Amino acid sequence: MVFYLNEERFKYELEKLSRLFLPFERFDFTDKADDLENQDCFIKVECGQITKSELRIDGQFVTDTIEASADSDGELNAALALYNCFVKLIGYKPPWGLLTGVRPAKLIGKLIAAEGEEKAVDRFKNTLLVSDEKTKLCLECHRSEREIIARSTSDSFSLYISVPFCPSRCNYCSFVSHSVEQAKKLIPRYVELLCEEIKQTAEIVKKIGLKLQTVYIGGGTPTTLSAEQLTAVMDTVKASFDMSALEEYTVEAGRPDTVTVEKLEAIKRGGATRISINPQTMNDDVLKTIGRRHTVAETVEAFKLARKVGFDNINTDLIAGLSGDTLESFCHSVDEMIRLDPENVTVHTLSMKRASNLNKSRTVFEAEQGKLAADMVEYAYKTLSAAGIKPYYMYRQSKTAGNLENVGYAKKGYEGLYNVYIMDETHTILACGASAVTKLREPGGPNIERIFNYKYPYEYIERFDTVAERKSGILEFYRRYGF
């Protein structure tokens, strides 16, 4: 699609805004209005005292104008004029309005700090066009996140450990993960080197004097490892780090078909205080459609086993907008989660794939999917909240159905600390394993730097010496800030 814009400095934000409505479109920017002649699809935004936006998609044409006031923001006027065109043409008004960012709760917190809550809420609703419901959700998450963030200190850090293997690959997955069938032979060596990287990371931590606050073992599916391999990893963590200040230790036991008593007992012995059992849906037909090799009955059995072993803090995940799911089916999944009585429920919105547009209008299908997903997450919000499982953190991803959000819900006192710290970028996250990204946060300051491990297990194994060398960047970072 040809995109004409006479203000280059607004390009980034207007492109992001356009992707809320056309997530898979390729935009060819031009500074020549003549390039739009004879185009069936184009975006045109002319900024000035009167900002005018024009939108044509498959022969349908709409326009909108915004007149500048003495104190108006030119970029905001351009965004609003373009947003109005999309809403007119598509007939769908995203509940997050003009917001394109990942962390809306963090944004409203900054506005509250600068202007007070009343003005911040007014800006969200009347300037950024966020719905009343999403503004309320944002405030709830901000208040909860603020309490958790206050628990972190300048010398706090979290440890993330990556186990990028799964029993099979789900059709919606965008993570770097590998089926056990393909990568089984790599696992023993991977675990051996992962334990070595954990030890090396711990030595660096001792030199700096950091305090370990949370541990998160994720993936992939960490419980694709055997009980013995899980023990090896977790015993290495316990032996290498000072655990005296630890407040939370999470292990993802995400796929119910990987959960056994032996693995749960190993995780419990290893010191985990919180696990995730993530069915994504409680509908067997949808599980088959998305490529899951387990049943609803196996989810329930895994949950019961975890309780029997002694876990009193369990998270479960659901996804709104999965292939083949209906509103009725999704509501049933939420109701079934409540019957299981977990301490945490995380409700994600499906991140759409490019292929979802096949044989559909480039706007109609996405609008329909967005409306359905919006009904799903609204039911989850109302039903979980009524059951005493309240929203405590939130983030957004690109290309989600309806430009919607991912929300963590929890019973009071069971909020996932690591989830908040990584999303808020509260403190340093030291990461080990393939595809892991260490995120270094300046103590008491805003600066952030990243150290990347190799994405794939075979690269991680073959180039482990380089992985270890890169870790020296942690020391250099903290020395720079006199820590």
Task: Explain the overall architecture.
The protein contains 17 helices and 18 strands. With 483 residues, the protein is an alpha/beta fold. The chain has 3 domains: 2-90, Double Stranded RNA Binding Domain; 104-147, no CATH class; 148-470, tm_1862 like domain (pyruvate-formate lyase- activating enzyme, Alpha-Beta Horseshoe), CATH 3.80.30. The protein has a 9-stranded mixed β-sheet, with helices on both faces. The longest helix is centred in the last third of the chain and has 23 residues, at 364-386. It is globular.
Short overview:
This protein is α/β, with parallel strands linked by helices and about 475 residues long.
Give descriptors for this structure.
3 domains, alpha/beta, 483 residues, 9-stranded mixed sheet, pyruvate-formate lyase- activating enzyme, Double Stranded RNA Binding Domain
- What do we call the CATH topology of the largest domain? pyruvate-formate lyase- activating enzyme
**Which assembly state applies to the chains in this document?**
single chain
Rg is 24 Å
Ends apart, CA distance between termini: 50 Å
Helix proportion:
40-55%
> How many helix segments?
17
Mean pLDDT value: 92
Q: How many strands in all? A: 18
Within the largest sheet, what's the order of strands?
14-15-13-12-11-10-9-6-16
Low-confidence runs of at least 5 consecutive residues: 355-360
Helical/strand content category? alpha/beta
Which CATH first-tier class of the largest domain would you pick?
Alpha Beta
What's the CATH architecture name of the largest domain?
Answer: Alpha-Beta Horseshoe
Count of discrete structural domains:
3
Using the alpha-carbon principal axes, give the shape. Answer: globular
